[in-house]
Structure formats: structure tokens, C-alpha cells
Amino acid sequence: MSNARTNEHGEADTGGTSTPGEPVRIIAGSGRSGTTWILDALVEANELRPVFEPLHPLAVPEALALAYAYLRPQTTHAAAERFLSRVFDGSFRSWWTDYRVRPDRLSPKLSELRSISAIHQLVRRWRKLLRQYRQFAPAMRRSRLLVKFIRANLMLEWISSHFDTRIVLVLRHPGAVVESRLRLGGEDWEPQQQLAQYLAQADLQQDYLFKYTDFLQRPLSAAGAHTAIWCIENQIPLTRLESSRTAVAFYEDLLSGEAGPWRSVLDALELQHLPPESVLMSPSQSAHRTQQGRFDSAQLHRWHDNLAATTRREIADVLRAMDVKIYDIDDPMPRTAVLDGRWQRSAGWTR
Predict the structure, then answer these.
(1) How do strand 5-6 and strand 12-13 relate by DSSP bridges?
(2) Which 3-state string (H, E, C) describes 171-233?
(3) Residues 25-62: pLDDT tens digits?
(4) By CB neighbour count within 10 A (0-12 exposed, 13-18 middle, 19+ buried), where does 153 fall?
(5) Structural Rg of the chain based on CA atoms
(6) Taking the model in full, what pTM does it have?
(7) Which fold has domain 5-348?
């Protein structure tokens, strides 16, 4: 790790900037939608440098005011433009975006190290950084970028209007997303605070949330709040983004391992090389395969079986109340026929 330099902000800096004249390539989606798997598959196949979740508010201090923000395309936001310009030109570096380790967890306060278990945890974190550094350091020397966001869905239209972008919006069944978030828990997946952050944004309320104010002001369970978050984060870009520079990719299609959906993603991002079959058969957050390694569509229901019937009903109630028609709680596959005509399923998307 001695090769890594740090800039004036204490960020890891190993040099390298993006290739001039190339579009900004973005993978975006709600957290737990398979975006990391897609990022890593495309990065290795096309020799790109991954930029991992630059809007994480706890890992990247500059992103604190931008994470989960709703920005109208005509809005002037100098701080967002400055920060994202650094992200997109490759000059922004940090332990998190480069090596996926939160720097705030590497230097805890002495008061937090008063037990043997806390010390062991700190040692594990530094060992993880070493492993991650060894894994990702070669890619950090590349100049062509692929940026992965899970907290930028509501500013994608703004990003598209201010930068030359090619965006793939990844959708995964809200039931699967909610099940994963409930199972993981932790501060990253605390739904009430995130939902409150959305409800507090005046422009978002005026442009979209006003339709659901009465419903969202009711007490919601954790599952209900997670589902409402999914609706907000995905309904808005589906109705606002220009399909000429954006493709919608369904996790369920990509999970099949068929080449068609992946080639559509490549076309959308102006990339050439399909990930190898071994990568396509190994999604990072799921193992929907038979013992022989073949895709088994019945396994798409695994998240459904992991949720209690009452939880499934709560999710269905929120989807219905917030006018989501593309997914149904009892069908693991997207209902793409209900999409606006300008959007086509990832398997058939053409530029």
C-alpha cells in the first residue's frame, strides 16, 4: 500500500484521469439491486476503472449534502457540479471510491477501542483494506471510468443535463430489494431516516410526492418504508430520463446469463466486450443457480419465500398506493408492457 499517495483531503491518490472525449458512463440503481455485480462484470471485461458509490455520505464527506438529493434539471448547484466534475474526470480519489473501505472506520476514537473485540474488529478492517487494495489497485491505473451510484437516482436527470452521460438504470424487484435490506440491517439500510430525508425536500414534494402525502404520513413499518423508498427512487427516473442516453436494465433479465440483456447494456454504455460466462454466472448478491450451475428461474422466488405473508402484503399495499405497475409482489419478473413506449426491456433496447 506504500504506492498510494494522499491529497490535501487525505484521499488515496494513485494518479490517472478519465479519457478525454469519452462520455461519463454510469450504473445507477437503488441499493441492493445488483449494481455492484454489474459494475465489476463490465469493469474487468472492458478494462475500466471502477468508481464506487461516490455519494456515500459517511464514507465521502463531500457527498453529505448530495446523497439522496432531488435536483431539477434546470437547477444551478455549483457544489454538485464541482464535486461530480472531479468524480467524472477521474481526479477524485478516496479509500471508499477506489477500494470500498470506509475511512471513518479505519481511525476510530480511542474511546471506541476499550475492548478486545473492538480492537480485533479494527484489525479486521485494516486487513480488509489490504485485501481490497491488492484486488483493485491494478484497475486504478486505468483511465476509462465506470461510475456506480446507489444514492443518485433523483439527480440522474440533472446529471444527464449537465454532463455528457451514458446511463444504465438497474431495476430489481422491490420485494427482493426490501428482503435484502431487512436481512442486512445496519446504518446504511435504516429506512425511516432516509424516507424522512426524501419527505423533507420541498422540490421533490412539489414535483412528485404531493400525490402520496396522505399515504406517506401514515406510520409505516420498516418493510413499508423500504418499499416507499424504492418507489420514489425508481418511479421518478423512469418517467423523467431521456431514453436516448439511458437504458433500463432489469436485474432479473441479467441474472439469466443470456447475452441479449448484457449486450443492450454494452450498447447503452458504448462498450464492446461482454463479460465472460463465469462472471455472468456469479452474481454478487444472489446465487440463483442449480447445483449444475444453470440458471433456475424458480429461484427468483427465493426472496418471496423469505418474507412473511404479512410483510408481503405490506409491500404490495405500498406498491399499489404509489402506482407501481411494473412489478407485482407475486410475480418475480418485471411487467415491462406497462412501461412508457420509449422504454424497452433491456433484452431489446436499441440506441
Answers:
(1) antiparallel
(2) ECCHHHHHHHHHHHCCHHHCHHHHHHHHHCCHHHHHHCHHHHHHHHCCCCCHHHHHHHHHHHH
(3) 999 999 999 999 999 999 999 999 999 999 999 999 99
(4) buried
(5) 20
(6) 0.88
(7) Rossmann fold (3.40.50)
